[in-house]
Specification:
64% of the residues lie in helices and 0% in strands. By secondary structure, the chain is mainly alpha-helical. It starts with a helix and ends in a 14-residue tail after the last helix.
């Protein structure tokens, strides 16, 4: 009887040890891999359009918002903020990339003018603020830059 209990206790300890090693290994692997943030343009358009101030919602259509978001994503891509392939990647941030909202707003105002989009500067600013809020909501934004941190 004592031998059976001893065997069961040893078996339980072996199962626990194997599980602890497997869970520990996976936790370490997942900690080293960037969390998967999936950007879906249609969801972003709906989020931004629904979260804009009422005054901006009255002036901007979903197509206007989509055009501005596409231009914003093109700017972010040009700065290197999107991986070339959407796969799990080890987090190796060598040079932080800092995005300045003022620069982005200016860029999008220019893009809106080039495309003939009739939107006010304040509406563009609201779209940028809300688009960045969408990035935070899906977990696609890193920490806030420290004052004086170098910009690329």
């Amino acid at each position: 009887m004592v031998a059976v209990v001893l065997i069961l206790v040893l078996a339980g300890l072996c199962v626990f040890a194997i599980a602890a090693v497997a869970i520990g290994r996976e936790a370490r692997r997942l900690d080293a891999v960037a969390p998967r943030s999936v950007y879906v343009l249609d969801e972003a358009v709906d989020y931004v359009a629904d979260h804009l101030p009422e005054s901006a919602q009255a002036r901007l259509t979903h197509d206007d918002v989509r055009l501005l978001l596409r231009a914003h994503m093109a700017e972010l891509r040009a700065k290197g903020l999107q991986p070339p392939v959407a796969v799990d990647q080890v987090q190796e941030i060598v040079d932080p990339v800092v995005v300045d909202e003022t620069d982005t707003i200016g860029f999008l105002i220019g893009e809106a003018e080039r495309s003939g989009l009739d939107v006010g500067d304040q509406d563009v600013a609201h779209v940028v603020e809300t688009h960045l809020a969408y990035f935070r909501a899906i977990g696609a934004v890193g920490p806030v830059a420290e004052p004086g941190e170098a910009r690329p």
